[in-house]
Amino acid sequence: MPSSRMTFLAFLAAGLAAALALQSGQAQEPRKPAAEAAPPARVVLQTEDVDADACRAFVNGVETKPNAQDILSVLGIGDSGRRWMAGLTSWEHKTFQYLLVFKKPVEAGSMFLYAPNVEVSALKDGVELPKDPREATAWMAVPIPAKQPAARLAPFPKGLRTRAFLFTDARDDGASAIDRIVFYKPRLCNLVPFGVANAQSEYTAYPNQAPPFTYYTRRVTDGVGNWQNTGPDKEKRIPRPPLDIDPCWFTISWDEPKPILGLYMEDNFDQFELAEYTGPEGLNPAVATEKEWSKIRKFTSAPAGGKGRWVFFEPRTTRGLRLKILAATPPQVANIAALHAYTDLGDQPVPEWKPGAEEPPLRIPYALAEDGIMTLAIEDAQGKRVRNLAARIERNKGQNAEPWNLKDEKGNAVG
Questions:
Q1: Distance, CA of 320 to CA of 280 (rounded, Å)
Q2: Burial readout 340-352 (b: 16 or more C-beta within 10 A, e: otherwise)
Q3: What are 313-343's pLDDT values in tens digits?
Q4: Is the backbone peptide bond immediately before 330 cis, with ω within 30 degrees of 0?
Q5: Which one of 184, 287, 340, 369 has the fewest beta carbons within 10 angstroms of its own beta carbon?
Q6: Backbone phi, psi, residue 20, to 5°
Q7: Is 101 in contact with 138 (CB distance < 8 Å)?
Q8: Nearest to 404 by CA among 8, 4, 6
Q9: pTM (2 decimals)?
Q10: Where residue 402 falls among pLDDT bands split at 50, 70, 90?
Q11: What residues have CB less than 8 Å from 362, skipping those under 6 apart?
């Protein structure tokens, strides 16, 4: 069968020319000065709102009386830094439950919960609190959207009004605890699981007695772990300058514009910038030029009571957000352990996550004179091999295109 070998420069030029043609002639309207950012309205709770005598913890149905100060701390009342802990287990299946009771019904639109793998139920409005929390008819399940880390955001059904919540943690090992609960008046939803993450680089670690492991950006959108830009190489050296000399970036983007009003982040940043994507449709923001990003100049950043921080700004509708990391500890390494992007659902239903392929930032178009087997390699201007994109694959006559994520063989973004 005839063979056609393609070089990178011709096809990349065609792809970039098409992208530039799409972007040309679109002047951005100047943005008005941003107002001071205010966080979403919370349900403000006081000590007297909590029925501490009725609150309980259970281990396999056996009741224990919690420390009232632990409960108040988890709710952001009084001393901070305490946990509501029901117990622990070591390779034995146990069910831990936490019963949070208020003196009068609470109305809320959503809940921020820092407690991994915990299921949530709300006492049905008008129903008496049962003596046995396992009485299922008294409770209404509160679904928590999937693909979120230990810190999770749960939009409530519209008009939720309840006097008690039941948190259930079934586990085989480790300590069971709730670190933080925050109730918001709006129906907030985390949109990160619905987005695509990209970064300047992804770090591959080489442990001594384990296979190599890469801190992919998709670990953040999947809610399963950290992204990291760099780290020690096989010689135990970190092969990049500090971030205050050479900043790195991380983006989260969506197929369609989304209204975003803030973030929750677990990171190691000492200094960072935020920007929103303002470029054309049909382009992955990860490959946008600097002119297609607008810096978010005013936002508030506050500790979230634990590992993370809340970052809120004036609501804006965009297809992407970019974090530019200017300084971190240690100085060369940027790490994101968890990320939320908040939107206010209003009366809209909670979106359903559906698996889908990640969008490649760029497609390299080419034409074949006839059916055949082709190989496509990416080379730089000096002829050095950057990426082996396709090797001996069958393609049909006519127009074709190959996706490229703009990364080299080591997973580093090609700038």
A1: 11
A2: bbbbbbeeeebee
A3: 999 999 999 999 999 999 999 999 999 999 9
A4: yes
A5: 369
A6: -65, -35
A7: no
A8: 8
A9: 0.79
A10: confident
A11: 15, 16, 19, 284, 287, 403, 404, 405, 406
Q: What angle do CA 272, 315, 113 make, to 5 degrees?
A: 75
Q: Give the CA angle between residues 340, 341, 343 to the nearest 5°.
A: 130
Q: Which two tokens stand for residue 247?
A: 């900043």
Q: Report the 10 Å Cβ neighbour count for 196.
A: 22
Per-residue burial over 77-107, b if 16 or more Cβ lie within 10 Å, else e, is: beeeeeebbbbebeeeebbbbbbbbbeeebe
Alpha carbon of 176 to those of 52, 70, 112, 269, 408: distances in Å?
A: 20, 14, 18, 29, 42
122 by Cβ neighbours in 10 Å (0-12 / 13-18 / 19+) ranks as: buried
Contact in structure between 178 and 118 (CB atoms under 8 Å):
yes
Tokens representing 5 are: 């070998």
Alpha helices per DSSP H over 192-236 = 218-221
DSSP codes of every residue in 33-76: PPPPP-PPPB----GGGB-TTT-EEEETTEEEPPPHHHHHHHTT
CB 48 within 8 A of CB 87: no
Return the SS3 of 361.
coil
Which residues lie below 8 Å from residue 134, measured CB to CB, with a gap of 6+?
A: 61
Q: Which of 18-32, 34-48, 375-389 has the lowest mean pLDDT?
A: 18-32
Of 355, 356, 351, 327, nearest in space to 341 by CA:
351
Which of 339, 363, 351, 343 minimizes the C-alpha distance to 218? Answer: 339
pLDDT digits (tens, 9 = 90+) for 278-295: 999 888 898 899 999 999
Token output for 280: 């054309």
